[in-house]
Design goal:
202 residues; mainly beta; 14-stranded antiparallel β-sheet; 2 helices; 10% helix
């Protein structure tokens, strides 16, 4: 198996192995990435991925380890391990701080579990409290294991369920989620979103 290797000390290290088919296209791939400094790695290596997604100037700090697995030319698994990652959108659409934990997705029948937490965040200027989110993945599906309550606007929003299914033959990806709201302060919400003033809770 041809081996892949790249080392940018302190910024990015890549290790992997690849199998090519008879047309010299990638058949199988196992790749491990260690991004030791996201602030430096973003302009050097990540802009080509972030820009098409709509985040060309996303500010990143912290560390990230990632894994990618292809089988028969198709994506078979992905992992990400976060170490004090912070992400700030330059257009002030969102901020997330203190991200730690692991996220795993697999097409295998054997399920894998993972958990990600953050210390704080904001969405369009609306502050979000800390949260810990547990996932389970199998058969190309990533699913929330249990509801997650997040403090916001003197109340709570609850992520009741979340399910993402990778594309299958003959069909695209599907994404489903459900939210609950409890005692959100409407005065604060309308102020932050530039709405006419409202009072009360929702």
């Amino acid at each position: 198996l041809p081996l892949l290797s790249w080392n940018d000390p302190g910024v990015m290290e890549a290790r992997g192995k690849v199998t090519l088919d008879k047309e010299a296209a990638i058949a199988d791939l196992d790749l491990q990435l260690a991004l030791g400094n996201l602030a430096t790695a973003r302009p050097r290596y990540l802009t080509g991925f972030l820009a098409p997604a709509g985040f060309p100037d996303l500010l990143l700090t912290g560390k990230l380890d990632a894994g990618l697995r292809l089988r028969a030319g198709a994506l078979a698994g992905m992992t990400a391990s976060f170490d004090q990652v912070n992400a700030i959108d330059d257009k002030a659409r969102f901020t997330i701080a203190g991200v730690n934990g692991d996220l795993a997705w697999t097409r295998d029948a054997t399920a894998v579990e993972s958990q990600v937490a953050w210390a704080s965040g904001a969405l369009y200027g609306i502050g979000l409290g800390p949260a810990r989110v547990a996932f389970r993945s199998a058969g190309g599906e990533l699913r929330l294991q249990a509801p997650v309550a997040i403090e916001v606007l003197a109340g709570k929003i609850t992520l009741e369920h979340l399910r993402w299914q990778a594309p299958k033959a003959g069909g695209g990806a599907t994404f489903q989620f459900g939210l609950g709201m409890d005692q959100l302060d409407l005065a604060s919400l309308s102020q932050r979103l530039g709405w006419p003033p409202f009072t009360g809770t929702i």
